[in-house]
Amino acid sequence: QISNVGVDFIEEVSIKTANFSAEYGRNSGAAVNVVTRSGSNEYHGSAFLYHRNEGLDANNYFSNSRNVPRSDLKYNDFGGALGGPVIKDKLFFFAGVEWKQIDRFSNPSLQTLPTTAMRAGNFSHLTTPLKDPVTGQPFPGNIIPTNRITPDGVAFGNFYTAMSQIAQSYTDTPTASNALFQQENPFRWRQEMMRLDYNINTAHRLTARVMLDHYTLTDPYGTFIGGNLPTVPTDRNRPGWNLQMNHNWTISNNLLNEVKFNYSGNNQSIDPVGDVWKRSSYGFQFPQIYPDGGTYEDSIPFGSISGFAGWNSASMALISPTKDFALTETLTWLKGAHTVKAGVLGIYNTKKQNGRSQYAGNVNFNPSGNPKSTGNAFADALLGNFRSYSEAQLDPVGLFRFWQVEAFATDGWRVSPNFSVEVGLRYTYHYPTYPEGNNLTAFAPGTYDPAQAVTVNTNGTLVPGSGNRYNGLLRPGEVPDDQKADVPNADSPAVQSIPIADSRGIYEPQHLLMPRFSFAWSPGGDGKTSVRGGVGLYYDRPEGNLYFGLPNNPPFALSASYENGNLANPGGAAVPALAPWGSMQSVSTGFKIPRSWNWSMSLQRELPWWGLFGEIAYVGSDGSNLMRRPDINRPSFEDAEANA
User: Fold this and answer.
1) pLDDT tens digit string along 320-373?
2) Nearest CA to 342 among 51, 23, 118, 79?
3) What's the burial of 485, exposed, middle or buried (CB within 10 Å: 0-12/13-18/19+)?
4) Which of 94, 147, 154, 282 has its CA at a distance of 20 to 30 angstroms from the CA of residue 255?
5) 302-336 b/e with 16+ CB inside 10 Å = b?
């Protein structure tokens, strides 16, 4: 949804809760149509202001328990609209503008931070010995000597110190949930809307409308990034537009034609602000395996320390401008008791999005399974002894496209004055999303050759030269010449060695048929009772998130993953040592479009008391080929037990 239409700009809202007409497609579920206001032969205008503040808000329970006062709230929504004639009976206008300004705070969040003493290496409060991983003996008094704390260990201490200082409240004791966070979360939005209606003559009417949106949200945890700690505050800027043009033609008194063109989109970007996301703010010094991989190279890595609050990285910053074009033609024919509709729809969508890879690194500290552990995850962090570390080479960008053609025909037949049916069929030619630069790969289990499997050393690295690291991968096609400048590794031997899939969208285009049937019956003839029912088949187009991470896959973008090393040299003795790939995503070559059968039956009755209306309904659905992303690399419980 590009535009959230201002309330004062709306003429009517139509909601089809059971959209069994073949006229509606693209997705299952309710169909919502918002009709914007138009001008008339008289001038009409409005002005409005909605205001709300913290005066009527109760404080949050956790804030009360920490004696944190109620957070401020200033909500202002204001604007106005005006409509009227430009040329009487011929040309009309309607225009409006709305502002929304909200000064607010995020929801309170309780997190666990290490104490000041722990950040200095003092774990004397622990009842279990803290083991020195070098000698195997306990640290005297459970205190790590200062000269054993690495520069990156000092940086972890600086990081948690900074977090404790921006918390709403912090208790410097080794207890769980000792910090409360509630950060500023302001929002600014403005929309301008203009509509023109032109009556050419009694048979032809033109309508043009434009809406412009200006949208800025400051999120302390990062929009679409999140995390336990506010390490990636971002400004989400999403300027959007929606342009629509309609031509209504009354061909005869029983034949109508409507042509509609819509162009909408936004230039969304989500960028970090401030300094809390930077390595340099805390003094991190560890070398990256793949330097200069992305826009925010100075970002802290993703991090998790068992028992304490984890954090996210600015490598999740987003660019995702999108454009959507839709052309529709609908012909309506009235013939006796029949209302026949038929139409075609063409859609073309473009989206540019970065892969949001973990090019700044991802480090995890956990005593479990780590032979170099002290027995405490934060003590491991001070020494730099991680349980796992992974890093991506690049933050690649994909230029994604899809197009789709649909057609429908439906007949609404009034069989008798109190009984009508509608029968229709919708057709879709579904073409999968594809990258213009063909810069992604997908894993196809059917093409994997066990004879080409790589050999893994006991330390988690790979035996150089063993097997085929790209075994089982497919790519959409060759990188076009005009895209090679923007596609790293486009001509590399590794990329050229990957077989090309049968379809540019990885899975095959598909022809989809969707039958629809519904009826309405008013028994008794008094109009006080109605029985309605229907059934229909629907196909949902997969959203782009199924694809947007695939350019992160090798060999267009490499990655590495290591276990039980030291952060001073994440890749071991040779950086980067040959290691397994980091996480990968894929789309099945045999992917089938998710579909659902929906049906319902309802009884509605006007009741004899006080104008009441009663309804009882049965609604059902049955879905198949629903999307999921299983971890195909996870062993079964039986295999895991057999290899324990």
Assistant:
1) 999 999 999 999 999 999 999 999 999 999 999 999 999 999 999 999 989 999
2) 23
3) exposed
4) 94
5) bbbbbebbbbbbbbbbbbbebbbebebbbbbbeee
